[in-house]
Design goal:
single chain, mainly alpha, 2 domains, two-stranded antiparallel ribbon, 5 helices, 63% helix
Length: 173
């Protein structure tokens, strides 16, 4: 049954993924009732008949179960029988574990990308704050200057800002 009973253990969820844990806590009891329902029994019967009462992976006709290729149409499978296949218990466990491995790898990759993006944004924010601070200092200095003779000093200050922007990677050299 999709390996969910392994996740549940003795009434507790054994997973780090909070979204999956939430789904298990809220939907798994409903899913169990559904799998025991007449509606599911009818769907299962149709899938088993379509697959000639044999596992589509190994061909055995013992310990047959129906596997969801996707849960996109859960509870509405009667219109999406192509999303269901017949597997023996052994092949079903292999498929479920393969799905868990793919999900785990996906989670690992997306977590790494998220962390890298957060670090990039944090560094970019630091650079923006640093540049903003320099601009505020320059604004104060420029407001204190009153006559045209200070023009040379203003140019030097603007060159300093330009150098700082290059140093921070904001401008090409």
């Amino acid at each position: 049954m999709c390996g969910m009973e392994e996740v549940m253990g003795k009434g507790e969820v054994k997973t780090v993924d909070k979204r999956f844990k939430k789904w298990i806590e809220t939907h798994y009891p409903q899913y169990l009732r559904y799998i025991k329902s007449n509606k599911w029994a009818s769907i299962k019967k149709r899938v088993l008949a379509r697959d000639h009462q044999k596992c589509v992976k190994c061909g055995t006709n013992k310990d047959l179960e129906v596997h969801h290729l996707t849960y996109e149409h859960l509870y509405k499978e009667e219109n999406y029988l192509y999303e269901l296949i017949t597997l023996c218990k052994k092949c079903h466990e292999k498929e479920t574990n393969k799905g868990k491995q793919v999900y785990s790898k996906y989670k690992e990759i997306t977590s790494k990308q998220y962390i890298e993006k957060q670090e990039y944004l944090k560094e970019r924010g630091r650079k923006i704050n640093e540049l903003d601070s320099i601009i505020k200092q320059m604004r104060k200095k420029l407001l204190r200057r009153k006559n045209i003779e200070d023009f040379e000093i203003i140019i030097q200050e603007l060159q300093a800002i330009n150098e700082k922007c290059k140093e921070l990677g904001w401008l090409d050299e």
